[in-house]
Write a structure and sequence with these properties.
By secondary structure, the chain is mainly alpha-helical. It has a domain of 117 residues. 52% of the residues lie in helices and 3% in strands. It is built from 7 helices and 2 strands; from the N terminus they run αααααββαα. Helix 2 runs parallel beside helix 4, helix 4 packs parallel to helix 6 and helix 6 runs antiparallel to helix 7. The protein is elongated. The chain starts with 5 loop residues before the first helix and ends in a 12-residue tail after the last helix.
Length: 197
């Protein structure tokens, strides 16, 4: 049996969520009967009253699901995906950039850069902060979280510098800067690791 990547699992999860959303938006058909007795209104003289139905028990199932890392990256970088083709492109970009094997915040930053500035520019900017990639694996020299934070900050600074030298900088620089600052401040919810017995 072939092993699914996390991106493929996230894609399947997104498709299931889209179907559930469509089912919720669909018009309701006949109400479900629960077998609960119907409460009768008190008898009044001279007027006819209709029986008042008992409130139906809630059938909503609320599940608190932590979004996957790729879901968080897509939500930040791309917002709502309009169609299946965009979703597939996002998953392909995530896999192509090798984001699954990276520390969470750096993974989102690299995905965002590859989406907005292109994969080749992203690779060049990673080289500026001494992150290299050989045979699909990243070589990151970081001893602790402080080093990773420093690498991320430098990477985002190089992104801003790159933006500053583009033709649209005069009109778009404020928007781009705000996006980069929001990325730096982004709180990543790390998905819980699942273990199988």
């Amino acid at each position: 049996m072939a092993k699914q990547t996390a991106a493929q699992k996230a894609k399947a999860k997104a498709a299931t969520a889209a179907k559930a959303t469509q089912a919720q938006k669909a018009p309701a058909t006949a109400p479900a009967t629960t077998g609960a007795p119907v409460a009768q209104a008190p008898a009044t003289t001279g007027a006819t009253t209709q029986p008042t139905p008992a409130p139906a028990p809630s059938t909503e199932l609320v599940i608190d699901v932590t979004p996957s890392l790729i879901d968080q990256a897509i939500a930040f970088s791309m917002g709502e995906l309009a169609d299946e083709a965009q979703a597939q492109a996002a998953f392909d970009l995530w896999d192509g950039m090798g984001c699954e094997a990276l520390p969470p915040k750096l993974a989102v930053a690299i995905f965002d850069c590859a989406h907005h500035q292109g994969p080749k520019v992203c690779e060049r900017l990673l080289g500026k902060v001494d992150i290299t990639r050989h045979d699909g694996e990243y070589d990151i020299i970081a001893n602790d979280q402080g080093d990773l934070d420093h690498i991320l900050r430098d990477f985002l600074a190089w992104r801003l510098r790159r933006y500053a030298f583009t033709a649209a900088a005069a009109t778009k620089m404020l928007e781009w800067s705000q996006h980069i600052l929001a990325l730096q401040a982004l709180d990543i919810i790390e998905p819980e690791e699942t273990t199988q017995a």
